[in-house]
Amino acid sequence: MRATLLQIDVDPDEKITRRRERVAGLVRAQRGADLVVLPELWPVGAFAAEEFGAQAESAEAGPTAEAMAAAARDAGVWLHAGSVVERAPGPDGKDALYNTSLVFSPDGALQATYRKIHRFGFDRGEATLMSAGATPVTVRHPSAVLGLATCYDLRFPELFRLLVDGGAEILVVPAGWPARRLAHWRLLVQARAVESQAYVLACGTAGTHAGVEQSGHSMAVDPWGEVLAEGGTGEEAVTLDLDPARVAATRRDFPVLRDRVLGLPLPQVR
């Protein structure tokens, strides 16, 4: 299985319409890949919170979805198109924003969406402007089951356990991760792979937007925690071949997942 992580430079001086066109061209250049992955919120920038409302779009029929569907179809690839700022009715029926990932099949059909569950920012930015997703998502690729997560989700292992329980063999994580926490990025990507005994494909952005330097360093990690490929700090394509059968082999040969003990009581402070 050939996978390509497209580490996009999100330049605030580049018009979003131009970036969509440019990224669509990069996707089209990946003909022959089995899976192409883009970063989190690459059309607008993960930290450009002041632009979220103005750049919000439909996950099914917005300009990014339409451009990425066409690019996936032209290249004949499965495409995890990163995420967009989605505008949609919230649980109360009122207008809401979500950080929503889009997955397209080679015929350009939208196969899955995932609304980011854990929003970053604490009392500002994404955490206050966007609504939280509520449902973990897996999607069946011809070679393996993909489990979907986004950026800050990496810090919450409970989500990844649910994805594994849902059959995930490859965990796909688009991100807009700041350079100042690069050490955490590397540590958490590898930790999620080791504890899940799954591949992790983590695709970040490059450049600086909203004054926040991005870490880049998109990574592919195998079920044993070995880093198979890692990007640098600029825009680039990180391409590798992986063997989904290694997931089952690792889980069979080192069967830690079967030793999980669930439903333990909370400890009492003594």
Automatic annotation (TrEMBL):
Recorded GO MF terms? hydrolase activity
Domain called CN hydrolase: residue spans = 1-244
Concerning Gene3D superfamilies, the annotation shows: Carbon-nitrogen hydrolase
Q: Does the keyword Lipid biosynthesis apply?
A: no
- Membrane-spanning residues where? none
Q: Which UniProt keywords apply?
A: Hydrolase
**SUPFAM superfamilies for this protein:** Carbon-nitrogen hydrolase (SSF56317)
The entry assigns this protein to a family as follows: Belongs to the carbon-nitrogen hydrolase superfamily. NIT1/NIT2 family.
What name goes with this protein? Predicted amidohydrolase
Protein's organism? Actinacidiphila guanduensis
Taxonomically, what lineage is the organism? Bacteria, Bacillati, Actinomycetota, Actinomycetes, Kitasatosporales
